[in-house]
């Protein structure tokens, strides 16, 4: 299965494409992506440019974070991607 394309955050319509590509990988390999943290860490290997600058500070704090931390919740991670890089007019 093809890996998601790198995501730079400059084209709002590509957020949904990136998320869907990641979800296809997750559903195709449930054994390796059974935990939100694993899904998020995999997904953070594709941002470049503006999107990479957003995720970089979170990745530098991989140890010693609380349970509500962005890298522990796929729903929170996905929501943040849509909020920061998605189309604000999308229904």
Question: How are the secondary structure elements laid out?
Answer:
Layout: H1 14-28, H2 36-43, H3 49-59, H4 74-85
Poorly predicted runs: none
Rg from Cα: 13 Å
Please state roughly what percent of the residues sit in beta strands, choosing from under 5%, 5-15%, 15-25%, 25-35%, 35-45% or over 45%.
under 5%
In total, the number of strands is 0
Distance between the termini: 29 Å
Organism: Austropuccinia psidii MF-1
Protein name: DUF4939 domain-containing protein
What can you tell me about this protein's structure?
- This protein starts with 13 loop residues before the first helix and ends in a 6-residue tail after the last helix.
- The chain has four helices and no strands.
- The radius of gyration is 13 Å and the shape is globular.
- The chain has a domain at 14-59 and 68-84.
- It has helices at 14-28, 36-43, 49-59, 74-85.
- The protein has 91 residues and is mostly helical.
């Amino acid at each position: 299965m093809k890996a998601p394309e790198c995501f730079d955050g400059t084209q709002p319509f590509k957020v949904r494409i990136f998320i869907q590509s990641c979800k296809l990988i997750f559903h195709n390999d449930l054994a390796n992506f059974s935990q939100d943290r694993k899904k998020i860490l995999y997904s953070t290997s594709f941002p470049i440019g503006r999107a990479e600058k957003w995720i970089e500070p979170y990745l530098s704090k991989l140890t010693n974070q609380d349970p509500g931390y962005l890298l522990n919740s796929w729903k929170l991670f996905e929501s943040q991607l849509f909020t920061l890089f998605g189309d604000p007019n999308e229904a």
